[in-house]
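help with this.
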Amino acid sequence: MYKKPLKKIPSFIFKIYNKQLIKSYPNYQPIFYNGKLIMGGDRNCLDRWKLIKKEIIDCKASSVLDIGCAEGFYVLQAAKECSCVSLGIDADIRRLSMAQNQISSEKIMPAGFLLAEVNEELINKLPKFDVIVFMSVMHHMMYSQGKDYCKNILMVLRKLVGKVMIFEMGQSNELKNKWAEKLPDMGEDPHKWIKEFILSAGFSRVAKIGESDSYYKDQGRAIFKVQP
């Protein structure tokens, strides 16, 4: 005799999996769970989101790309609050699994995620987006690949920026991080150094729109609005 499938079992298992995944590692960003926002994470994402949201609204963006999206907080917020077609890219499978699970469990549309290493080859395959969020990523590229490599990444990325890029990176004065000593010396004014570095990649305008704490909260990182 044919038995009807137990429809609630997969949903129940999925909820248990989500709960255990959240607890299995230190979350980098806040996470949506059961209709609420779990305020974990290592960064002050809500303040950062206010700056990002303002730029999305001001330029009337309809599409957003977050490079190095972690658990996807900005991607999901852009879809939820601004109705943007939003895409996040990250190479961390566990964080990206958490991001993807939030789409399914919270029914957040229109958003999606791509598992990939960010490099010139990938960037050249992507379409333009009105707003690109590129935060807390470039210093990792710079200490491992060098300044010239990063400049080339920015030059290629500029072609994808339809209206605005929101940019932030680690600084050489963040001495509590071991990688800081591997960065170029940014002098007494790292914010000015970073601004000039971005402009050297061919962007037309770079304006500081705010600051956010570094990972260990020992320095203030500049958040820039960058126009192609």
